[in-house]
Design a protein that fits this description.
345 residues, alpha/beta, Nucleotidyltransferase, domain 5, 3 domains, 5-stranded mixed sheet, 55% helix, 12% strand
Length: 345
Amino acid sequence: MFVAGIDAHATYSVIAIVSNTGELVHKPVRIKNSEADRLDEFLEPFRPLEVVVETSPAWPWLFDRLEGPGVHFVLAHAKRLRVIAESNYKSDDIDAELLARMRLAGLIPEVHTKSVEQREQAVLLRSRGRLVRQRTQMANRIHSQLHNVGLHLERGRLLTQDGREWVRTEAWPRLGDERRLFITMQWALVDQLEPMIKTLDRRVERMGRDNPAVALLESIPGIGAYRALVIATETLPITRFRTPGHLVSYAGLAPRSSQSGLRPIRHGSIPAGANRWLRGTFVRAVVSHVANAPDSWLSDSYELIKQRLGWQVARIATARRLARAVHAMLRTGEVWRDQPVSLQN
């Protein structure tokens, strides 16, 4: 068997072939992405073959093109490939060969390859998420102008008609001409984003109707169609997470731990290289859950931790428990229950 390391770029890919004994069978070759047939011809003599590619915008088309009989596709987590990322001397040829040799040595941190359907869902969800963030940024800029003149408006109210009326009646007399113009322009940008967000929300709802996992997740108070589809897209198939702890770690909700010698284990910050979309969804779902189901076991857990350690720690800790509950629900196919996972099992 052979291993092909591919350093993929926007317009070309560099491929190096290494045998299972570590011998460089074919020195690195550069092939344009527009010459896909040439790529197939180059790899054909080396089947059965493992292909190793780093996560990048170019990996999906390579996966769709190469995955099949005689080829096993391995997607490598680019942020965790420290040998390549921190190398003092980098080149496409070196990176391609190093990917292949690291695979032989068992040093490749693998990433799950999403299906075409999941990738399409991810594009929709990320587009919607970015538009909402842009709308929030504009609202924050308006809040900043109000704070500069000593005024305060509750968050969330600003984007309502009532909030706008308050600004025009209460804040307008205390704002200068330039501040008024700035706020008016921010509102105009928000008005442009609103119909786009609503269009994507309708698409999310339609896409979620065809996914049984979405209906299951929507039984959790605080999780609607959008968040349910995000969780389903980023976690399915749930069998790839052997334990709830694996899902918690993948979502970036487990703090770093370190130990040296006989010293006790020290827990540090949350890792940055985890799935930030999944982490953000779980954390924001906790806030909505506490508001919608204040008497649930999860809300009680949040309040207890909040009293002891503060709301920042409480959100992350409760999000971990929510992730464990989601793992159990997706594994068993059972709807949300108002009791801890340990008692359910």
